[in-house]
Every structure is written in C-alpha cells, then in structure tokens.
Design brief:
About 40% of the residues lie in helices and about 15% in strands. The protein has about 350 residues and is of the alpha/beta class. Strands 3-2-1-4-5-6-11 form a seven-stranded parallel beta sheet, sandwiched between helices. The longest helix is centred in the N-terminal third of the chain and has 23 residues. Bound molecules: nicotinamide-adenine-dinucleotide.
C-alpha cells in the first residue's frame, strides 16, 4: 500500500493513452484508492489499453473532452478528487506540424479548464483536506528546446520551445504554475524525457520501427539518424509520478530522464538486432530495411535530462536499463500485434506526418 493513493480519489486525464494507461494500471492495484480515468478517446486513446483493469471496482471511466468546461466541472463535482494527474494532451510532434490547432485547444485551453475546475473543488475543502490535494501537471523536456553536443536540461533551464507541440506544452506549464502562485492550487510540474514501452501508439518512433521491420517495409530514419533522445522506460516514469504525489514539493518542478542518450540510428539498429534474435528473418538482418528519409522541419538535435533533483528529493531513479526496457518493449509488440492492428484501424492509418503545411 502506498501513501499517495490509499484511500484517495485520483483523476487521471489522458488515462487511456500510453503513459496514462500505464499509470492507471499501476494505481488501481491498490484497492483502497479510487481511480477515475478522464479521457476523450481521441485517435490516441484506447480502452483496449485498460482492458485488464476497467472491470476493477475501484476504476471508473469518464469519456470527457478536457476542453468541455461543463463536463469537466461536473466530473470534479461528482468525484471530488484529491489527486489529479494531468496527462491528456495532443502529443505527437509530427501531427503538431501538420495541424497545430488541436494542440493549442487541448494542451493550452484544456489545461486552463482543468485547472479552473480543480481550483473550484479545492476551494470548497477544509484546510486539512486541501493540504492532501495535488495537481500534477505532466509535461515534457521538449519545452526546453534543443541541446548541442554538451549539457543537460534541468528544472532551472529557461524555456525555449521550438515546435507547435512543445510550445503548447510550455503554455500549459506556465498556466499550471500561475494557478499555484496566484490562487494557491497545489500544483507540481514534471518535465520528462522520451518514454518508451508497451501500449505506445503505433505512430511513435519505436513502434513504427518494429512494425516496419516485421512488415518487410522500409524502416524510416529521419535525416541521418543523428538526433539524440534520452529514453525513459514508461514504468519508471509512472514510478516518478507516484513519487511526486507522495513526496513532491508543492509549487515545485521535477525533471525526469532515463540517463539513456541514444541517437535515433542507434535505437533502430538495436531494435533490428533484438528482432534478429527474437524473430529472425530468413532473408537476413532487419537492418537492411533501414532507409534515410526527409528530416522533420526544425528537428531538435539533442535532449538530455539531469534528474539529480528528483533523485535527491524524491529518492527516485529509473529501475530499467535501456537495453532491458527495449527488449521488453519489442517482445510486447511481437506478442500484441492485434492491439496495434486494432488501434490503427481508427483514425491513424500509418501515413507519413509532419512535413509541414499546417492548417
Ligand atoms: P498519448 O498521445 O499516448 O495519450 C494522450 C491521451 O490524451 C489519449 O488517451 C487521448 O485520448 C487523450 N486526450 C487527447 N486530447 C484530449 C482531450 N481534449 N480531452 C481528453 N482527453 C484527451 O500521450 P502520451 O505519450 O501518453 O503522453 C501523455 C502526457 O505525457 C502528455 O501530456 C505528454 O505531453 C506527456 N509526455 C509524454 C512523453 C512521451 O515520450 N510520450 C514524454 C514526456 C511527457
């Protein structure tokens, strides 16, 4: 039993998405906490990612768009959550280049609506109850812009977002902090590096590579594959968020990274060699399918995160190595092809996104 969840009512926005569903699967294991998933089920949200837990008596699902103020307020009035983990977002950088409007609407306006609703219920509580409340705003390291060869992002790095996605997340982060400083809402902001693991939507980098390899398609690598990301296994991010709810400083910010800097080409090559071992192709290594394609416009070169504050204050550190997490991820995609087919039969059909021409 954990003190962050026991006896509490917790709302997880975006709980049918990749990270949100991993968080929900973890939280509901404590039967004494009530978990309410608030999700609009956009193309990226899938109840199939929650099929193992939705029947639990302590798990409820509310199909709500966070930009619908009346519905959000109703949900807060009904459940009166002590803890809100806010993960609902438009999250795919390439989509933000083609169609930024939804990113502004959900990530900025939706976050404002949630903060306002959370503040409304928080104000009605006693002082003791207020002290136990948290609004955990989950953001990305992409708000800090792009690094060169050296250095790392930390909680004190100035914001310099460069894509419509990261700019919309940055706007939301500023609102979340303002709701703490101006109104006293107990907000904590987290900025995390690239996640990977099971149940990630098939348009994201690692699932795209696995699927293309297995289908015998070209494995697309943007530019020369030199861009570097700091990969964090999704369950380690979930643990980080739980630590924040339990021990995080109200009004504080925590940056989380996996300490696993890899170039995109390194990641692709490693996936190919895991597949060569787990699912050999009689025609030879999967790395023969690698093909360099047009780069993403404004592609940030490098992200890396210094998580030492989180290690010191929260006692958090990642439990998975990159190699271990990647093996588990590839194995999961090999065993759960039907999940990928089912989620892709929705709006996403595998087209190349993010070459520009936003509307
Ligand atoms: P995802 O795209 O897999 O899931 C997003 C979820 O939000 C989906 O279930 C979707 O249905 C829901 N959603 C979208 N718009 C909504 C709306 N208007 N109302 C209600 N629900 C809506 O995203 P993810 O990768 O799980 O990311 C979750 C959060 O973590 C995001 O805020 C993202 O910015 C942040 N983050 C992600 C990463 C990463 O590598 N994936 C890294 C750092 C931070």
């Amino acid at each position: 039993m954990r003190s962050d969840s026991t006896g509490r009512t917790i709302v997880v926005t975006g709980g049918a998405g990749f990270i949100g569903s991993a968080l929900v699967r973890s939280l509901v294991r404590d039967p004494a906490c009530r978990v309410v998933v608030m999700d609009a089920l956009t193309y990226a949200g899938n109840l199939e990612s929650l099929h193992t837990v939705l029947r639990f008596p302590n798990c409820s699902f509310e199909r709500i768009d966070i930009t619908d103020a009346a519905a959000v307020r109703r949900c807060f009035a009904t459940y009166s959550p002590e803890i809100v983990y806010h993960l609902a977002a438009e999250s795919h950088v390439d989509r933000s280049i083609d169609s930024p409007a939804a990113f502004i609407h959900t990530n900025v306006v939706g976050t404002y609506i949630l903060l306002d609703a959370a503040l409304g219920t928080w104000k009605l509580r006693s002082d003791t109850e207020r002290a136990a409340c948290r609004f955990i705003h989950v953001s990305t390291d992409e708000v800090f812009g792009s690094l060169g060869e050296h250095g790392k992002f930390s909680e004190t790095t100035p914001y310099a977002p460069r894509s419509p996605y990261s700019a919309s997340k940055a706007g939301a982060d500023h609102l979340a902090r303002a709701w703490h400083h101006t109104f006293g809402l107990p907000v904590i902001v987290t900025n995390c590096s690239n996640n990977f693991g099971p149940y990630q939507f098939p348009e994201k980098f690692i699932p795209v590579v696995v699927r293309a390899a297995l289908n015998g398609d070209v494995i697309p690598v943007y530019g020369r594959g030199a861009n570097i990301r700091d990969w964090l296994y999704v369950d380690d991010h979930v643990e980080a968020l739980r630590c924040v709810a339990e021990r995080g400083r109200v009004g504080g910010t925590y940056a989380f990274g996996g300490g696993n800097e890899r170039s995109n080409l390194d990641v692709v090559t490693e996936i190919c060699s895991i597949l060569d071992e787990m699912h050999p192709n009689p025609k030879g290594s999967y790395d023969q399918q690698i093909s360099f394609v047009a780069d993403r416009p404004g592609h940030d070169f490098r992200y890396a995160v210094d998580s030492s504050l989180a290690q010191r204050e929260l006692g958090w550190k990642p439990a998975h190595t990159f190699e271990q997490g990647l093996r588990e991820t590839v194995e999961w995609y090999l065993q759960n092809d039907q999940w990928s087919l089912d989620v892709m039969s929705g709006a996403y059909r595998g087209e190349r996104l993010g070459l520009g021409g936003g509307v």
